[in-house]
Amino acid sequence: MKIDLKNKKAIVCGSTQGIGRAVAVQLAASGADVVLISRNEESLRKVLRELPATKEQDHNFIVADFSDPESLKTKMHNFISESKPVHILVNNTGGPKGGEAISADTSEFIQAFSNHLICNQILVQALCGGMKKEGYGRIINIISTSVKQPLRNLGVSNTIRGAVASWGKTLANELGQFGITVNNVLPGATKTARLDSIIQNKSKLSGKSVEEVTKEMLTEIPAGKFADPEELAYAVTFLASPYAASINGINLPVDGGRTGCL
After folding, report:
1. I need a labelling partner for 119 at 20 to 30 A (CA). Which of 10, 25, 93, 160 fits?
2. All domains in the chain, ordered by first residue
3. Which residues of 173-203 are buried (b: 16+ CB within 10 A; e: fewer)?
């Protein structure tokens, strides 16, 4: 099976590092035209130069800060008016800071809801019309295994990720008739800056060394390893392909078996 996304256009959010960057690289390697989204133009230009490309491919980027939804809405309106239809949307946004839900200020929930669900909604509304016309759409939300099993000390993240998962399932039911699928990919512990931060925080809270915390986390994973970002990218690329036309509305953990439920 060879995944060929030639003549497909993809938008990948949070694509200058970690999982988002790996997804952008893999989609480009599979032939898609990739549009990167992030708030840092310098980082976007660097990743753009590194994307695999043939003469036929046309990669680009949009500078957008998800803390400003109205600005994102304007930028997407301008992009759509000047661009060919987008077939693939990968929603990927850095998670809220750690901490218990009971201790979080209400503003943290509001900001996280805006950064994640509201901005996802803006992107889908902007791109959905083109997907319908093309009869092909793949909306893939990078969330967290916390939608199946809440994670300790990530109260705000657990809450907002769950909302995004339910939103995605609702959209899957609404858009399936148009050849558009909506699926959620749930990363477990993955080798990113986010994981480094979580390990550092656990170390400070527990008084244990980083090495001890890392070892404890690894014992919770049947595969005995943290996932590489590329492994998430392979799952996303398959879901973005024509082969996944009948996979719709699912939560797909990529976690080495850590999640303790089906």
Report:
1. 25
2. 9-188+228-254 (3.40.50.720)
3. eebbeeebbbbbbbbbbbbbebbeebbebbb
